[in-house]
Every structure is written in structure tokens, then in C-alpha cells.
């Protein structure tokens, strides 16, 4: 049976994506990083997307993931940049 995954965070760079993924996995939540890139156009669309990619978790863990990320410093940093 295929699991449904949902986006819980849109990092601005690959390093932040990795940090967030590790934080979720350290809390026992499966996390997948999906970058916005495609072959020869690698990275060209990132500015128009406003993010580097997506961090996804199984739908059943979305609420728990949101709780883990709520006070994470990297999430707060990126939200602060949006203000």
C-alpha cells in the first residue's frame, strides 16, 4: 500500500532541508526531501518558487511533524525572513 505524503516545510536551501529532515527523523518521523530541480535547468526555477524544495512526511505524521518543527530554530529563522 502506497503512503500519502504531505509537505510540512519548504526550505530555502539544501542545507536547511537536510537539517529539518534530520530533526524529523530524530523524532521518529519518516521524512523525504523533494528538491525543485530538473536536469539541465537545475536550480533555475528556485527564485520563482520561493523555496529550494519540499520536506514531506506521511500524512498520518503531519500533526506530529508540525509540533516538532514549531519551535525549531531553522523554521523560525526562515519565517522571520518572510516578515
Would you mind describing this structure in some detail?
The structure is a single chain. By secondary structure, the chain is an alpha+beta fold. It has one domain (5-82): Alpha-Beta Plaits (2-Layer Sandwich), CATH 3.30.70. The chain is 43% helix and 18% strand. The protein is built from four helices and three strands; from the N terminus they run βαβαβαα. A three-stranded antiparallel beta sheet has the order 1-3-2, covered by helices on one side. The longest helix has 13 residues, at 14-26. The chain is globular, with a radius of gyration of 13 Å. The mean pLDDT is 84.
CATH class (first level) name: Alpha Beta
Could you name the CATH topology? Alpha-Beta Plaits
Order of helices and strands: EHEHEHH
Major beta sheet, specifics?
3 strands, antiparallel
Question: How would you summarize this macromolecular structure in one to three sentences?
Answer:
This protein has helices spanning 14-26, 46-49, 62-70, 73-82, and strands at residues 5-9, 32-35, 53-58.
Quick tags:
3-stranded antiparallel sheet, Alpha-Beta Plaits, alpha+beta, 83 residues, 3 strands
Q: Which SSEs are present, and which pair or pack?
A:
Blueprint: E1 5-9, H1 14-26, E2 32-35, H2 46-49, E3 53-58, H3 62-70, H4 73-82
Antiparallel strand pairs: 1-3, 2-3
Amino acid at each position: 500500500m502506497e503512503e500519502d505524503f504531505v509537505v510540512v516545510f519548504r526550505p530555502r536551501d539544501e542545507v536547511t532541508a537536510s537539517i529539518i529532515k534530520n530533526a524529523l527523523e530524530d523524532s521518529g518521523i519518516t521524512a523525504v526531501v523533494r528538491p525543485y530541480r530538473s536536469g539541465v535547468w537545475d536550480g533555475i526555477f528556485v527564485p520563482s518558487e520561493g523555496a529550494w524544495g519540499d520536506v514531506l512526511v506521511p500524512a498520518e505524521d503531519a500533526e506530529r511533524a508540525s509540533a516538532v518543527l514549531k519551535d525549531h530554530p531553522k523554521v523560525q529563522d526562515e519565517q522571520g525572513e518572510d516578515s
